[in-house]
Amino acid sequence: MRFLPVRDDAVLIELDDLESTLALFDSLSSDPIPGTGELIPGARTLLVFYRPSAVTPAAIARAARSRDLGSRVAGEGNLVEIPVRYDGEDLAEVAALLGVTAAEVVAMHTGQDYAVGFTGFAPGFAYLTGGHPALNVPRRTSPRTRIPAGSVALAGTFSGVYPRESPGGWQLIGTTESLMWDLGRERAALMLPGDRVRFVDVSGRTGSTADAATGVTASPATGSTTAAMPRPRTRSRSSTRACSRYCRTSAGPGTPAWACPAPARSTRCRCARPTGWSATPPAPPGWNSPSAASACAHMANRCSPSPAHRCR
């Protein structure tokens, strides 16, 4: 192990590999060093926050070096079930690379629970480890410039779900409607380090899209479950531009919609347009304040040339 100071209340521990990192993370999570706080694992690092008044970096180093990293301790994290339609563009190619059928790839992916090793790349993206050992495929030789949100993918021994539309080079094997990142939830990220993840095949099921859009998080202590919120409706391109016009006007030329001032960013606007209607994600607390309501009305007036709109 190598110990590097980050600031006066955090130290970064470098290890040899991912297995050692996760073993130390599990050990320090199940039996914390007195005075330490949040732990953030990476592929070969573990960031440890601590209270300087309670423990020193030297004491953390001594305690960490004494831990047995030969085997992992069962984590206390939640069990997250993710329903997947195995319709990915690369499913057949992955099967060919492994010398098996597509059905066998699905069986391997759903047959064993994963563990969240670490997070990164984008908010809500979790690197999942511990699946079937045969699921070891290379990244694509030519990455895609646009991968849809909710794409379930493989790369090396990792599995993951793209939380938002983005470039990427992982092999796509399926899609899910579960939201990986949602600021409207108490826990924005659906999967956090220490959680266990189980993929459930819903490819052949019939029923409402809401049934297939539920990601379930179960606490091992209580057995309670919390369903992930369904994916928001797709915005039409023209109505989205119209709805964000107020934001760009008030914030300055060329300002993107996400840089909108807080009152306008905290509203939801539905536009009556031939191309359909749009809605922003669920608003945070305080969205219905007088200033937000005024911004919402102003935005709605710019959204629609007629009174056929509703803003809330």
Structure, briefly:
The protein is of the alpha+beta class.
Key phrases:
elongated; six-stranded mixed beta sheet; alpha+beta; disordered C terminus
Largest sheet: 6 strands, mixed
Shape label: elongated
* H-E string: EEHEEHEHHEEEEEEEEHEEHHHEHE
CATH architecture of the largest domain: Beta Barrel
CATH first level of the largest domain: Mainly Beta
Biggest β-sheet: strands ordered side by side in the sheet:
7-6-13-5-14-15
Count of discrete domains: 3
Description:
With 312 residues, the chain is an alpha+beta fold. The protein has 3 domains: 2-65, Gyrase A, domain 2 (2-Layer Sandwich); 79-227, Cyclophilin (Beta Barrel), CATH 2.40.100.10; 237-311, no CATH class. Helices cover 24% and strands 24% of the residues. It has helices spanning 18-30, 57-65, 91-98, 102-111, 209-212, 237-243, 245-251, 262-265, 290-303, and strands spanning 2-7, 10-14, 36-41, 45-50, 79-84, 114-119, 126-129, 144-147, 151-155, 158-161, 166-168, 171-175, 196-201, 216-218, 225-227, 269-270, 310-311. The strands form 5 sheets. It has a 6-stranded mixed sheet with strand order 7-6-13-5-14-15. Strands 1-2-4-3 form a 4-stranded antiparallel sheet, with helices on one face. Strands 10-9-12 form a 3-stranded antiparallel sheet. The protein starts with a strand and ends with a strand. The model is unreliable at 207-216 and 221-312 (pLDDT under 50).
